[in-house]
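Quick entry, no commentary yet.
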Amino acid sequence: MYLELKNINKSFAGFKAARDVSLGVEKGSLTALLGPSGSGKTTVLRIIAGLEAPDSGEIILDGRSVNELPGSQRGIGFVFQNYALFRYMTVYDNIAFGLQVQKKNKKEIKERVVELMELTGLAGLEKRYPNQLSGGQRQRVAFARALAPNPQLLLLDEPFAAIDAKVRGELRLWLKNMIHRLGVTSIFVTHDQSEAVEVADQIVIMNEGQIEQSGTPLQIYKRPRTPFVAQFVGDSSVIEGYERFAGFQRVPGADKAVLRPEFVECFRPDNKKLAAAMGAMERGTIQEIVFKGHCMELTLSVQGAGLRAQRSLERRPVQLGDEMMVLIYRMYVFDGENARLLENQELLKIPPDQVPAAQM
């Protein structure tokens, strides 16, 4: 591992911000620290950067302990949430600042700044000041400034938080491609799960100062290990009494279930292709319809529970109050401290060619 955290603990006035945090990051990878506000992700980032000292535990970077090294000597670049650009410096001077602190010669500084401005798409803006730039351009300047001294590790604290939605989407892809192109090991903090899933090679989910789970975006999404992860990742509904639904039986010790919209499908009752699957389905009523751009999200009342499902714009329109046949394919249940995936047992009895398709 290029970066290792071993049993990191940190408290502030009795509040435990990091609890026995152990983490490994591969060289050249892009890791997201994901979690709700107060989960400890920014504290962990600041400890890595040397901006906070851990109460206990060890930080190992490229094979050596850096606990006793000040942040300025750890070879780490930091991009702050608010950019932290110098208002009275031009783009060129902002990017050059770290190199000037290192007392590099002017020729070396110029070559490096020009290289980074080309790389980050800022060429031609070198004489502008931060207030003459868009939010996306300011973020690129902050990124270039952090990269200028050739850091071993790049840390980013909520890098897209201050940018509007459209530009944020563009910058996500740009950042991912840029970091992989440069091969610099990077960690960024976010509370936005879609951001983490789109950008990161590895996601580390934090809650109440602890790591709940780490893995690839696909592993985190498809195989959540704890109830918290099952609820936090994905647009989930938490249901009690899940055994009332066709095809599901109660698991001892598991009182609640998590259903994601992709686990639920609904069909018009007059659909003649549903006959074989009727034993696996429930009747429900549409209570809410929300246009999501790429689909309609329906909230359905099914046996007193509110379930969400997504409906393609290509399918026949539906209205509030319409009765629908609802098929629950699977769900997660909480078995103690573990999340367990349950499949609809009635659906498994049906030949695959008779399972109703989503386009019906």
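second:
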Amino acid sequence: MIKAGIIGSTGYAGQEIVRILLGHPEVQIEWYGSRSYVDEKYYRVFGNMFQLVDAKCMDDNMEELMKKVDVIFTATPQGFLASYMNEEMLKNTKVIDLSADFRIKDVATYEEWYNIEHKSPEFLEEAVYGLCEVNREKVKNARLIANPGCYPTCSFLSIYPLAKEGLIDMKTLIIDAKSGTSGAGRGSKVANLYCEVNENIKAYGVATHRHTPEIEEQLSYASGEKVTLNFTPHLVPMNRGILITAYASLKKEVSYEEVKAIYDKYYDKEYFVRVLDQDVTPETRWVEGSNFVDVNFKIDKRTNRIIMMGAMDNLVKGAAGQAVQNMNIMFGFPENEGLTMAPVFP
């Protein structure tokens, strides 16, 4: 049994970590961190936790926390963990960060896109980008995990096999993405009010979304060339879910069977990535509440382009579930421990 602490436990992703870990046989939650609800019962913040969690919310005292637990999850805004990170922390505990503080290796790129100064760039090289399906061996021995963003996870896993095999022209890659409102976090914002979101869909962060450099960096590693792409996210009126539709030109003529064999090569043994049957398109409703990513593709012979699609729950595989998946690998548990829940429908 390992002990876990969660900083930011009263946000959407933090609460999702709590929900998952309550069903994990190898983990005990010792610290429910929250700046907004210190000393308030956790179940008073989230009524779904009534009679499940009797603990009170605690502060974000990282110095005390790192001496009490084996792993810390930081579901916090950009800049929080970087301002606290030090060698003593990593000697005492493992850290899984759900912010972008350690995802992007180039500090100048991080500071440009997030518009804040990075307070601990000396740990960027050590931090492991926690995309388990690609970096599993690195995750095993990591002290610090940069848990990938939600859009980058779904985008990358949808495109990765074809980028890795050099089948698509990376210069032609365009990603269209759609997300539910929980992706914006639990903080109050006018743009996320019911009357603003309901019966509406809109593009946002056009050509400026902060996940763009993360997607470009990871696809550059995969393809072996510098990737620059268009990424356009959209806000849709639903609680959870991400849908990715990506487009790229093919470098050669291929059949469905040839492309399917490539996806199977990379994902046939991956528990959480489901390559769908021919002509079945991914849907957010079939992954909601789960750690699964559903992917598929369609060859458009008329334009010599391929359409790559993916769907997942932004709070699970896009945040909390992937964080727990990383924890499982780090501590030698079965990778899907506590994460085998079926998607919720309806």
